[in-house]
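R.M. (postdoc): so does anyone remember the format we settled on? I'll just put the structure tokens first.
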């Protein structure tokens, strides 16, 4: 276990959550029913927001240089932010929390923010300990990692290495107890997978892929059977899915010159535009009524 030091900056009000620096990016909350937007904080280079399981904290990256950033925590109850000063570089990849814990999963370890030295880590944002989930020297590049809701499996976005290059991204699940790796999607089924999200019951994973639509399409795969079925194909595109806490809907970003935030009802398959903007995957608050995301770059 590696020690982590924590620096704290006291907040200047609920709407800024302690971040008052100038910048073109902002962390905002969006009411799913009304589309009302509230700014939580503003600063330079904000990226990759992810809400804690209890809804009290938001992890995000504050990019310090290309593909590498600081991991920061916005405390919504104390109205403050703090920086986790880690002994490894943090890559510009999605962040995710382990259910019912203060443990956060991120990809890091590579000084450039990408490449062969990138690997998944688990950090407790309260007791300041870091645990490496995957080793270096693997036959793949790490492009994404997210723990299952029960914490027993790790969903991974990987690029398998070969002497003359590497395969496109593939979605796989790693069993932490047995060490078994199972590929779920990629290559022959769908290509250019970019992001993914577990269902709340841990039985399915929704993901976006650009192979069938350059702007992105949504699919879902059954983890047990490995059966892949499409959710949204063609049209304006869809990326960065986020499964709602009740499992009934998936939020996603529709890309373009002016990105927009949408919600897909999985019972009716109806799509509804919630708000404009968004430069990364949305993250649900536990109540299922509010989404948090980064706006701007």
């Amino acid at each position: 276990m590696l020690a982590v030091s924590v620096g704290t900056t006291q907040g200047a009000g609920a709407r800024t959550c302690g971040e008052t620096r100038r910048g073109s990016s902002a962390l905002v909350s969006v009411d799913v029913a009304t589309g009302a937007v509230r700014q939580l904080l503003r600063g330079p280079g904000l990226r990759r927001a992810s809400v804690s399981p209890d809804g009290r904290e938001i992890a995000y990256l504050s990019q310090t240089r290309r593909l590498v950033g600081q991991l920061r925590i916005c405390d919504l109850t104390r109205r403050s932010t703090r920086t986790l000063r880690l002994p490894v570089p943090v890559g510009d990849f999605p962040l995710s929390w382990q259910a019912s814990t203060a443990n956060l999963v991120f990809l890091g370890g590579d000084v450039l923010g990408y490449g062969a030295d990138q690997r998944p880590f688990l950090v407790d944002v309260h007791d300041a300990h870091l645990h490496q989930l995957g080793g270096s020297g693997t036959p793949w590049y790490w492009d994404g990692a997210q723990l299952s809701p029960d914490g027993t499996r790790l969903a991974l976005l990987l690029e398998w290495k070969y002497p003359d290059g590497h395969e496109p991204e593939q979605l796989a699940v790693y069993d932490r107890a047995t060490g078994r790796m199972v590929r779920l999607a990629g290559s022959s089924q769908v290509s250019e997978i970019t992001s993914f999200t577990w269902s709340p019951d841990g039985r399915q994973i929704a993901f976006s892929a650009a192979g069938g639509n350059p702007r992105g399409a949504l699919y879902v795969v059954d983890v047990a059977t490995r059966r892949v079925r499409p959710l949204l194909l063609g049209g304006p595109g869809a990326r960065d899915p986020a499964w709602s806490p009740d499992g009934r809907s998936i939020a996603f970003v529709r890309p373009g010159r002016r990105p927009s935030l949408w919600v897909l009802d999985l019972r009716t398959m109806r799509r509804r535009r919630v708000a404009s903007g968004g430069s990364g995957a949305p993250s649900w608050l536990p109540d299922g009524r509010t989404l948090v995301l980064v706006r701007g770059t």
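R.M.: ...and that's the designed sequence above, right after the tokens. Also worth knowing: The chain has one domain: 2-295. The chain has a mean pLDDT of 82.
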